């Protein structure tokens, strides 16, 4: 969720007009009265994709916390409908949604959110750093301090959201009345490391790496690396981008190897990993392996290393968006198609070596369709990253081709420019609806899944006014304002 990013319009060969029948939303609009001059412009496709992702994310949370659907496998330990014993974790029984494709789809569309946030945050950080150096004269040290402080803010806000919603009874238990009547322990409020906590940690590490590599580039004077096959150039990029990409691959490979070792060849045979107590065990939870630490209810759901890898891949792509956005969008399309093809190959031919969960691991033979598509999200396995980032990149290209001033894109842009305000506030709308529904239905939790749709749309509608107001407020502040940290 990096801040605003502004780009210089390029010469004709770099203008981001991607399709002959569509004016790109990233294309500069010049005054007809004079010659075209370079000007700063907002790279809107990234904001559009972030807006689409945040809207889809709200559906996932509404679905989980407002519906009484019974498609989850297994039974909840506290009789709630959302806390089944099956999951998308690297361990335990696999969630197959009772073989119902429609429920699998209702969950699957939100898989693209968390990887998209991490990837776009990496890209946005590079764009923001470039903008601050160019426009405000920030040094590398100042940029690193900014990302460090902003990362800390995200981590703190992640715990604040967790604590507030736990006390409201939304996330501590599906049984609203019981949650409201019993005290909520600190482990329930602060012991769940979720996506915002992980994003904050990613920002701190990635911000440091970006600026260290930028400093090395300037010191060596090397600004381009060309990979060749024989005498033919295969790929040309900045040294910083190449190093960030390789580090991202190392993060993903090390995570896959670590989880394979922890599974001992059979994920379902481990109903729950042991609670981590020692320093090394806890660091393993923080870095690689999701699971409980200190006590069973304190869960590390988003370990740093695999998600940092996604963020580093986004940062690796960021440099090209600052110099040649048209080429960057075309490369995003190509990379997206390649990743989607890799997903099919991994699920079809990868077997137990390249997969962590699902049909290739011998799971879900009673529901082969659902089992083939069901992947491990905690932590993100290679197949999960391939299909989600692949789809996000294809969508990023498509969004770069749409009309700049169309009404719907302008609305989505509002969401994409203030995603943190959306994230912080939407939980409170959902938790309020959850409590109202519980008592309105005679102390029965949730409504049928189709009935969640109008509630979800109402949440998105309410959020529009929040993100619009916050975007206007934030735009009135200078680059040094503390409000820019949000």
From TrEMBL:
It comes from the Eukaryota. Keywords: Membrane, Transmembrane, Transmembrane helix. The keyword Cytoplasm does not apply. The keyword Transmembrane applies. The chain crosses the membrane at residues 108-128, 148-170, 190-210, 242-262, 299-320, 332-350, 382-399, 420-439, 445-467. Coiled coil: none annotated. This is Heparan-alpha-glucosaminide N-acetyltransferase catalytic domain-containing protein. It comes from Monosiga brevicollis (Choanoflagellate).
């Amino acid at each position: 969720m990096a801040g605003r990013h502004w780009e210089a319009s390029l010469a004709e060969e770099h203008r981001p007009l991607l399709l002959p029948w569509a004016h790109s939303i990233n294309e500069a609009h010049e005054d007809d009265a004079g010659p075209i001059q370079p000007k700063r412009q907002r790279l809107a496709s990234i904001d559009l994709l972030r807006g689409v992702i945040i809207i889809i994310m709200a559906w996932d949370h509404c679905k989980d916390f407002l519906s009484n659907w019974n498609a989850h496998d297994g039974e909840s330990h506290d009789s709630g409908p959302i806390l089944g014993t099956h999951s998308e974790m690297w361990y335990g029984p696999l969630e197959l949604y009772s073989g119902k494709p429609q429920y699998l789809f209702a969950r699957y569309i939100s898989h693209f959110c968390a990887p998209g946030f991490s990837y776009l945050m990496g890209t946005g950080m590079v764009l923001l750093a470039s903008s601050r150096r160019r426009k405000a004269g920030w040094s590398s040290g100042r940029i690193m301090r900014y990302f460090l402080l902003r990362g800390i803010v995200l981590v703190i806000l992640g715990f604040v959201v967790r604590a507030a919603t736990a006390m409201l009874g939304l996330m501590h238990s599906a049984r609203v009345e019981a949650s409201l009547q019993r005290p909520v322990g600190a482990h329930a409020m602060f012991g769940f490391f979720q996506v915002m906590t992980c994003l904050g940690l990613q920002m701190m590490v990635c911000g440091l790496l970006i600026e260290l590599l930028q400093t090395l580039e300037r010191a060596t004077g090397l600004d381009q690396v060309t990979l060749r096959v024989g005498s033919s150039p295969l790929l040309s990029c900045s040294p910083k981008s190449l190093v960030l990409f390789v580090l991202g691959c190392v993060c993903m490979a090390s995570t896959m190897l670590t989880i394979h070792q922890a599974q001992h060849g059979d994920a379902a045979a481990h109903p729950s990993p042991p609670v981590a107590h020692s320093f090394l065990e806890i660091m393993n939870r923080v870095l690689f392996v999701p699971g409980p630490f200190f006590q069973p209810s304190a869960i590390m759901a988003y370990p740093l290393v695999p998600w940092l890898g996604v963020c580093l891949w986004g940062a690796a792509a960021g440099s090209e968006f600052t110099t040649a956005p048209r080429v960057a969008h075309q490369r995003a399309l190509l990379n997206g198609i390649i990743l989607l093809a890799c997903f099919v190959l991994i699920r079809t031919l990868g077997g137990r070596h390249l997969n962590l969960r699902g049909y290739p691991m011998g799971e879900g033979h009673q529901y082969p369709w659902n089992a083939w598509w069901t992947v491990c999200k905690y932590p993100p396995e290679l197949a999960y990253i391939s299909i989600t980032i692949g789809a996000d990149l294809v969508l990023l290209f498509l969004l770069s081709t749409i009309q700049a001033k169309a009404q719907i894109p302008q609305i989505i842009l509002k969401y994409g420019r203030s995603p943190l305000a959306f994230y912080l506030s939407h939980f409170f709308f959902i938790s309020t609806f959850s409590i109202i529904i519980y008592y309105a239905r005679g102390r029965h939790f949730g409504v049928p899944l189709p009935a969640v749709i109008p509630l979800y749309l109402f949440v998105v509608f309410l959020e529009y006014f929040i993100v619009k107001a916050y975007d206007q407020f934030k735009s009135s502040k200078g680059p040094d304002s503390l409000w820019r940290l949000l």
